[in-house]
Design a protein that fits this description.
This protein has helices at residues 44-58, 88-96, 100-118, 138-145, 172-176, 182-191, 197-203, 215-227, 230-243, 248-263, 267-285; strands at 8-12, 17-20, 26-30, 70-76, 81-83, 125-131, 134-136, 148-152, 156-158, 194-196, 208-210. It is of the alpha/beta class. The strands form 2 sheets. A 7-stranded mixed beta sheet has the order 1-2-3-4-6-8-11, sandwiched between helices.
Length: 286
């Protein structure tokens, strides 16, 4: 595969752009509708389109392909944002209404997707997060669910949920504690700091950092490198699933704790959520 190989349109969903390259790798660009001014966060519509696309990739594949190893790349079309996390406007509305079922349904949909990615879509897919803009809250959880995180210089990642009295509940603790010690994972969660990807790389959380504008090239080179030894990387997928397993039940149990904590938030925390929503909306309108 050439390092400057173009991408070809495979299918378009309302909120995501899906493309493929000549080697068969699937690229999913979130927030394809960003020009309409929508916030680049995990709206229900976005999750529906993302998980639909990933379910198609997860379908049984004919073994006529040149390699048994497949790749899925998650990226973003939104300027300056990989993903800004959960739909805080929806959270605030559901919490004010005391709607545990609605909040649990949303959280479960998040868990469905991140577990699918962490699990390698059944084992024969290597998932790569291409972070070319900020990844916050659930956006960072999405990146952490992937086998490899490639980030461009100048971008930031973080888990700021503590600012409105919560902790992240859709995989952050589970995925972080497989990359760093549980103590360091807890400190990152409770400090709520937004950190440059360069620092996260030094900590062992981000795998590869490249200059601004070089992310796609770096991902293509990584895919090319892994395709030289596809069976080794498939075996590594299986080894990771055994040695560093994050089960669906673990994720679902943790997100149930998150739902109960969210429903206990007071008005001050909900107003903080709504201020963040307004800031995100201003950012999207620029």
């Amino acid at each position: 595969m050439s390092t400057n190989e173009p991408l070809y349109r495979a299918r378009t969903y309302p909120t995501v752009r899906v493309e493929t390259d000549a080697g068969g790798s699937q690229w999913l660009f979130m927030h394809a509708d960003h020009a309409t001014g929508v916030r680049p966060c995990f709206r229900r519509e976005l999750m529906h389109d993302m998980w639909s696309m990933l379910s198609e990739v997860n379908a049984p594949q004919p073994r006529a392909s040149t390699s048994p190893l497949r790749h899925v790349v998650l990226a973003s079309d939104a300027p300056g944002a990989f993903n800004l996390g959960g739909d805080l406007a929806l959270f605030a509305s559901l919490i004010r209404a005391g709607d545990r079922e609605g909040l649990m349904d949303y959280a479960t949909r998040c868990v469905d997707g991140v577990h699918l990615l962490h699990d390698g879509l059944g084992g024969d897919v290597r998932s790569i997060a291409l972070v070319q803009g900020d990844a916050l809250g659930g956006g960072m959880e999405l990146a952490l669910a992937c086998q490899v995180i490639v980030a461009e210089e100048g971008t930031e990642m973080g888990l700021p949920e503590v600012l409105f009295g919560l902790v992240p509940g859709m995989g952050a603790y589970s995925f972080l504690s497989r990359r760093v010690s549980p103590q360091k994972a807890e400190r990152l969660i409770l400090e709520g700091r937004i950190l440059p990807v360069e620092e996260l790389h030094r900590m062992g959380i981000v795998d590869i950092v490249v200059p601004r504008g070089e992310g796609e090239r770096a991902v293509r080179e990584l895919i090319q490198q892994e395709q030289r030894a596809p069976h080794a990387h498939l075996a590594l997928n299986r080894v990771r699933r055994l040695a560093q397993a994050v089960t669906y039940d673990e994720l679902l149990s943790i997100t149930a704790v998150w739902v109960d904590a969210a429903l206990a938030l007071g008005d001050r925390s909900l107003r903080a959520m709504e201020r963040i929503v307004r800031a995100q909306a201003r950012r999207s309108a620029r």
